[in-house]
Design a protein that fits this description.
The structure holds three protein chains of three kinds.
Chain A lengths: L7 E8 L2 E6 H26 L8 H17 L6 H23 L13 H23 L1 H6 L9 H37 L4 H34 L1
Chain B lengths: L1 E5 L8 H132 L4 H23 L1
Helix pairs in contact in B: 1-2
Chain C lengths: L1 H10 L2 H41 L4 H15 L1 H16 L1
Helix pairs in contact in C: 2-3, 2-4
Chain lengths: 231, 174, 91
């Protein structure tokens, strides 16, 4: 059962003589996540279409709580109100995608897309480029470039390494947590105790750690963008 | 197109790009389907709540104004009633004082009258007494003249006389 | 007896030694690498609790900052986990 532990199904697509490799499971599971999120969005939107009454109905209250969570916990840490409003969809989508990806592993025959380094690294690099794009836009070219040689010019290599370390640690944190949980779960259920304990472990790693890591991922995205814009 | 098992961490591949495209699509869809309506809905509700608050505040202000007016009216009414009561009190006081003084005067007048009457009566009585004494004296003298008077008889006679006078005097006084 | 030992020793190939070293290294990486992050996370939680005990009304902000701080502190532990996984599954 463990002979394919840590290995993935790779799909080779030949375009001409060029071979493109894809992780089949990751792709299907990320589609599942996207479909779930879109269904959720449509369901919530149907509730929002109704007229506003004295008391908000159940869906409206849910939307209220969700937006309250996303706004109050995540985007309220932004330096300026304008930045928070502009990046609210991005950060919220990031959070919801990672959260549902992490939670997907508790459903049988499903796997977390975030177990794949490709996914986490792409999201982390996206956050990296977004943060630098916003820093460049808000500070202007001169001040943006000057930020790399502060406080002293000879710190330039250190600053560059620090900037590169951000997305790498961002990606590896999520990947390591989810993948480590999955490996532990696979080992425990295949070799040690196949009953009861894997379920509890799955709930812990899938739901609890998954939620914490999704929150941390979004929160760190906010923090990185904030630091890049402010300093 | 074929499938095979691949190693884990080393397999950075085109899933990377694929996932970026996926994420972009998801971002667009969620922005379109969820965040825009949700934020619009929240804005609408905030406006509704703000307008309700505004109207509630206006109502409250109106109520406060009305209450103030009522208090003012009540205060003036109370003041007026108090004045009226005070005035009435003063009038009553005055009336009482006037009545009292009048009564006093009346009483004094009555007393004076009574005193004067007493005086007159006394004078009248004294006159009568004097006349009675004279009659008695005349009577006694006539008796003395009619018979010899012993010492004892004389005393008895005098006693009788005195008693008569006394009774007479008592009757007169009554 | 001596013959047996010689047989066993000569039966061990270089690949066996490499496999043993791999597993040993993975174990050591996890054991030593997680010490630092564990202590660090404990310190973060302790001070956050301190702060909450002193100012209970700040609990929300403190919890949020604590979780992010712990996540950053956890980085080194995660790195060692990744290294251990690479040692076990890839090398």
């Amino acid at each position: 059962m463990l002979e394919h532990l840590g290995e993935k199904l790779i799909l080779h697509v030949m375009i001409g003589s060029f071979s493109l490799r894809f992780d089949l499971v990751t792709i299907i599971m990320s589609w599942v996540v996207i479909v779930l999120l879109v269904v959720l969005a449509l369901w919530l939107r149907r509730g929002l279409r109704q007229e506003i009454e004295e008391k908000p109905n159940r869906i409206q209250a849910m939307v209220d709580a969700l937006v309250d969570l996303l706004k109050g916990q995540l985007t309220s840490s932004f330096a300026s109100e304008k930045l928070a409003r502009e990046l609210f969809p991005f950060i919220s989508t990031l959070f919801l995608f990672v959260l549902l990806s992490n939670w997907l592993s508790v459903i049988p025959y499903c796997d977390s897309p975030t177990k794949d380094l490709n996914v986490t690294l792409s999201l982390a690099l996206l956050v990296f480029f977004v943060s630098h794009w916003f820093a460049f836009r808000m500070k202007g070219g001169r001040r943006y470039l000057k930020g790399f040689i502060e406080p002293y010019p000879f710190m330039l290599p250190l600053n560059i390494v620090g900037e590169i370390a951000k997305p790498v640690s961002h990606a590896f944190r999520l990947f390591g947590n989810i993948f480590g949980g999955a490996i532990l779960l696979a080992v425990v259920s295949a070799e040690l105790i196949p009953v009861v304990v894997p379920a509890a472990l799955n709930a812990f790693f899938g739901l609890f750690i998954g939620a914490i890591q999704a929150f941390v991922f979004a929160m760190l995205a906010v923090a990185y963008i904030n630091v890049a814009v402010e300093s | 197109m074929n499938l095979e098992w691949g190693k884990v961490v080393t397999s950075l591949n085109w899933t990377f790009v694929f996932n970026l495209v996926n994420f972009a699509i998801l971002l667009y869809l969620l922005k379109r389907l969820l965040f825009k309506p949700a934020l619009a809905y929240l804005d609408r509700r905030r406006e509704l709540i703000a307008s309700r608050m505004e109207s509630a505040r206006a109502d409250e202000e109106k109520a406060a104004r009305l209450a103030a007016e009522r208090t003012e009216v009540l205060k003036t009414a109370y003041e007026q009633s108090r004045q009226i009561v005070e005035k009435t009190h003063a009038q009553a006081e005055e009336t009482i004082v006037a009545a009292k003084s009048e009564a006093k005067q009346d009483a004094e007048r009555i007393l004076d009258d009574a005193r004067m009457q007493i005086e007159q009566e006394r004078a009248q009585m004294e006159q009568e007494l004097r006349r009675a004494y004279a009659e008695i004296a005349v009577l006694g003298a006539s008796r003395v003249l009619n018979r010899e008077v012993k010492l004892e008889d004389h005393r008895r006679l005098l006693d009788e006389l005195l008693a008569e006078i006394g009774e007479e005097a008592l009757r007169m006084e009554q | 007896m001596l013959q047996d030992t010689q047989n066993v020793v000569s039966g061990i190939s270089g690949a066996d030694i490499a496999t043993a070293a791999k597993y040993l290294a993975a174990g050591f990486v996890m054991a030593i690498g997680s010490i630092g992050s564990a202590i660090g996370e404990g310190l973060v939680a302790a001070h956050a609790l301190d702060g909450i005990a002193r100012q209970p009304e700040m609990e929300g902000a403190l919890m949020r900052t604590m979780v992010v701080g712990q996540a950053i502190t956890e980085s080194t532990g995660i790195y060692s986990l990744v290294v251990a996984i690479i040692l076990l599954l890839v090398v």
